[in-house]
């Protein structure tokens, strides 16, 4: 039912629908640990690719500056070796030579890019591990045919996630353009002098400008990554929220139906009570309060070194114990402090504590004397 209240202004009547502020899906409950664990197994974790991009840009361009001389030297060596072979063109274009030369060049290129590839791989694995920990899963790679539905696909085009991604892309393009523009404007005077530089100087200068631009772009991307990670965490929590009915159903699945568990506990109590009542005829004496407490004691030196409490109860249960004891000609002895102490300190089937040995021994001696007289 829609709840409404009215605010009467000077000239109009305003109606407010309180249901407008409610969660449309009814998901108002925080996700349970089981829901979080299941989502993690499905690959649904808080992860921002922008963090990977930012650190990858910074470290990759920094690596270019570090490995620049190495890369330049290797490439120079390849060009020199190739240039030396130019006078022997007739011998180069043969199947035997090509099969030897091409794999050699490819191997050299792999060796050149190996440090950069190692840096990229290390950064990607490290940043991903920092964000989500180590939990490899292939479930996100499984094909989901529901995504082929054009109606739901059209709906995703205008979802909150798509809008945020669009805004993020616009900001990234704006930052990239601004950094490149500022870097180029600052180097305009030096760019004019490129024609007067030697090849090595030109390469070094262009490489330095590119590295500086890459590092600046990476630094600016950190701000985008921070905001994106906060949004990804918020969206992840919203997607994991549960309805009250889902929480109840999950509780039933993990803990069991409360009604069934209650019935099981009741049945177990009944079985335990029945077993206890069956043990009363074995008692040597029943010590009572006399109206509230009743404790049945058995002493058999072949079973235990001390007397054992085989049954106990209060009120109605105490009356039942005394009734069964009377039907089986078991002595009932009134001792209020002892009955209360035995009931509160000794569990059924356990021996009495040493501090009660003397009091129980006196009761048993009295009972045995009565039996001998009879």
From TrEMBL:
<keyword id="KW-0969">Cilium</keyword>
<keyword id="KW-1133">Transmembrane helix</keyword>
<dbReference type="GO" id="GO:0005886">
    <property type="term" value="C:plasma membrane"/>
</dbReference>
<dbReference type="Pfam" id="PF01312">
    <property type="entry name" value="Bac_export_2"/>
</dbReference>
<keyword id="KW-0472">Membrane</keyword>
<dbReference type="InterPro" id="IPR006135">
    <property type="entry name" value="T3SS_substrate_exporter"/>
</dbReference>
<dbReference type="GO" id="GO:0044780">
    <property type="term" value="P:bacterial-type flagellum assembly"/>
</dbReference>
<keyword id="KW-0812">Transmembrane</keyword>
<dbReference type="InterPro" id="IPR029025">
    <property type="entry name" value="T3SS_substrate_exporter_C"/>
</dbReference>
<comment type="function">
    <text>Required for formation of the rod structure in the basal body of the flagellar apparatus. Together with FliI and FliH, may constitute the export apparatus of flagellin.</text>
</comment>
<dbReference type="GO" id="GO:0009306">
    <property type="term" value="P:protein secretion"/>
</dbReference>
<keyword id="KW-0966">Cell projection</keyword>
<feature type="transmembrane region" description="Helical">
    <location>
        <begin position="109"/>
        <end position="132"/>
    </location>
</feature>
<keyword id="KW-1005">Bacterial flagellum biogenesis</keyword>
<comment type="similarity">
    <text>Belongs to the type III secretion exporter family.</text>
</comment>
<keyword id="KW-0653">Protein transport</keyword>
<keyword id="KW-1006">Bacterial flagellum protein export</keyword>
<feature type="transmembrane region" description="Helical">
    <location>
        <begin position="54"/>
        <end position="72"/>
    </location>
</feature>
<feature type="transmembrane region" description="Helical">
    <location>
        <begin position="166"/>
        <end position="185"/>
    </location>
</feature>
<dbReference type="InterPro" id="IPR006136">
    <property type="entry name" value="FlhB"/>
</dbReference>
<keyword id="KW-0813">Transport</keyword>
<protein>
    <recommendedName>
        <fullName>Flagellar biosynthetic protein FlhB</fullName>
    </recommendedName>
</protein>
<keyword id="KW-0282">Flagellum</keyword>
<keyword id="KW-1003">Cell membrane</keyword>
<feature type="transmembrane region" description="Helical">
    <location>
        <begin position="205"/>
        <end position="231"/>
    </location>
</feature>
């Amino acid at each position: 039912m829609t709840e409404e209240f009215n605010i009467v202004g000077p000239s109009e009547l305003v109606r407010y629908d309180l249901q407008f502020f409610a969660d449309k899906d009814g998901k108002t409950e925080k996700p349970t640990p089981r829901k979080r664990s299941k989502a993690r197994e499905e690959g649904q974790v808080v992860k921002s690719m922008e963090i990977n991009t930012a650190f990858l840009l910074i470290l990759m361009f920094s690596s270019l500056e570090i490995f620049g001389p190495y890369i330049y030297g290797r490439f120079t060596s390849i060009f020199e070796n190739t240039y030396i072979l130019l006078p022997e063109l007739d011998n180069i274009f043969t199947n035997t030579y090509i099969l030897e030369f091409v794999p050699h060049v490819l191997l050299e290129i792999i060796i050149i890019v190996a440090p950069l590839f190692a840096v990229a791989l290390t950064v990607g694995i490290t940043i991903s591990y920092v964000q989500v920990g180590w939990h490899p899963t292939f479930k996100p790679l499984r094909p989901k045919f529901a995504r082929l539905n054009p109606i739901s696909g059209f709906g995703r085009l205008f979802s909150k996630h798509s809008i945020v991604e669009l805004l993020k892309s616009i900001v990234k393009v704006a930052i990239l353009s601004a950094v490149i523009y500022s870097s180029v404007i600052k180097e305009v005077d030096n760019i004019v002098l490129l024609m007067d530089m030697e090849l090595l100087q030109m390469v070094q200068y262009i490489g330095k400008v590119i590295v500086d631009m890459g590092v600046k772009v990476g630094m600016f991307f950190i701000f985008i990554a921070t905001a994106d990670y906060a949004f990804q965490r918020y969206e992840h929590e919203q997607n994991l929220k549960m309805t009250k009915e889902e929480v109840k159903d999950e509780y039933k699945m993990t803990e069991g139906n409360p009604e069934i568990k209650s019935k099981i506990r009741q049945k177990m109590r009944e079985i335990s009570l029945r077993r206890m009542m069956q043990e009363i005829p074995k008692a040597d004496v029943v010590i009572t309060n006399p109206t509230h407490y009743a404790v049945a004691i058995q002493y058999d030196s072949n079973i235990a070194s001390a007397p054992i409490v085989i049954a106990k109860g209060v009120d109605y249960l105490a009356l039942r114990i005394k009734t069964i004891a009377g039907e089986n000609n078991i002595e009932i002895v009134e001792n209020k402090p002892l009955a209360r102490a035995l009931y509160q300190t000794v569990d059924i089937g356990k021996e009495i504590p040493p501090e009660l040995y003397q009091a129980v021994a006196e009761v048993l001696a009295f009972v045995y004397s009565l039996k001998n007289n009879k």
